[in-house]
Amino acid sequence: MRIQNSLCIIRARLAAVAAVTALALFGSPAMAAAPESAPESAPATYVGEKACLQCHEPANKHFGHTLHAKVFRLNPKNDTERQVCEACHGPGSKHVSKVDDKNFIISFTREWGTPIEKQNTQCLQCHKGGQRLHWPGSTHASNKLGCSDCHNPMANASAKGLLKKASISETCYTCHQQQRAEFKKRSHMPVPEGKMSCEDCHNPHGSTTKPLLKADSVNEVCYPCHAEKRGPFLWEHAPVRENCINCHSPHGSNHDKLLVSSRPQLCQQCHSPSVGHPGQFFRNDQTAASALIGGAQSARVIGRSCQNCHTQIHGSNHPSGARFQR
Q1: Which of 13, 120, 209, 291 sits 20 to 30 Å CA-CA off 97?
Q2: Which residue has the higher pLDDT, 283 or 161?
Q3: Strands 252-253, 187-188: parallel, antiparallel or unpaired by DSSP?
Q4: What angle do CA 30, 34, 38 make, to 5 degrees?
Q5: Which residues contact residue 233 at a Cβ distance below 8 angstroms, ignoring those fewer than 6 apart?
Q6: H or E element at residue 236
Q7: CA 177 to the chain's CA centroid
Q8: Whole-angstrom Cα distance, residue 277 to residue 308?
Q9: Are 259 and 247 in contact (CB under 8 A)?
């Protein structure tokens, strides 16, 4: 009996010690029994194209004709492309269960609210390198421009490039209204006629220059079409060698030959010779219009003005061409 009583006392003391220990660790028996915090929610999973089409069948009618649809469905390069819709929009299991939560799916519209950086990251998974090598830090990227602001991968709105407008130039005009107006001027690059596009001179996806030029300088952009102006010349015209836009407006002008001002005013911005010509050789009464009312027109003002004599104004290789007359 004494042994049994001793065992009971030992058990009671052990139980008391256990209770005190639990109280110290958990504060109270209720807290000790409380469940652990719920684990983080599991990541979304792919549900397949058929699940998407149950709600988005109208969008599929346009998407089915695009290059993206043909590649993803007929010749996918990897497991991501095999997901078709979810290759761009991300795994859709959470979106299916709660369609009103905009955080559960990646959308490519401004209204949906997916961050531009996240949208562009989806595109750059496949479309990286090449022309997009300089996209990070470019003018368009710095201004938070999204790929979907220029492109519409869900429909064939353009002949190529899956653009949002019918042509490259029309897409650029959406933001660049000033350039659109310049192309309407009397003298302009043949962009409205469709003979060239903005992309012939600019790389919208980024370049090493601030205006997104396709070469390192303005002159290097102009020379592929205007090779006769490249030189080298025996006699070089300094402003021509420095920059073509010293004299020309690159998009359009109301003056001849895309000039920034009419001749001879353009030339007189730099040239006011003290010898050879009068110091002020242009006057209003020397124009062809003034001759109709009795004025004395000057050959230095009418026609091509200074270039009536200085014909090789971009540069000359003639031994006597120091004044660009030959």
Answers
A1: 120
A2: 161
A3: antiparallel
A4: 165
A5: 314, 315, 316, 317
A6: strand 235-236
A7: 16
A8: 14
A9: yes
Q: What does the pLDDT read at residue 292?
A: 81
Record the pTM: 0.78
181-209 confidence digits (pLDDT tens): 999 999 999 999 999 999 999 999 999 99
77: which DSSP letter?
A: S
| Distances 263 to 49, 266, 304 between C-alpha atoms, Å | 65, 5, 7
Structure-token pair, residue 181:
């107006």
The pLDDT tens digits of the residues spanning 36-67 come to 433 447 889 999 999 999 999 999 999 999 99
- Give the chain's mean pLDDT: 86
Is residue 148 predicted with pLDDT exceeding 60? Answer: yes
- Bridge partners (DSSP) of residue 236 are 315
| Residue 271 structure tokens | 């040239």
pLDDT of residue 16: 52
pLDDT band at 279 (very low <50, low <70, confident <90, very high): low
Domain layout of the chain by residue ranges: 231-316
Locate 262 and state its tokens.
Answer: 């009419």
Q: What is the C-alpha to C-alpha distance for residues 44 and 199, in angstroms, rounded to an integer?
A: 39
Rounded to whole angstroms, how far apart are CA atoms 10 and 277? 125
User: Distance between CA 326 and CA 316 in Å, rounded?
Assistant: 7
In 119-251, DSSP assigns E strands to: 187-188, 235-236
Across 143-215, the runs of DSSP E, i.e. the strands, are: 187-188
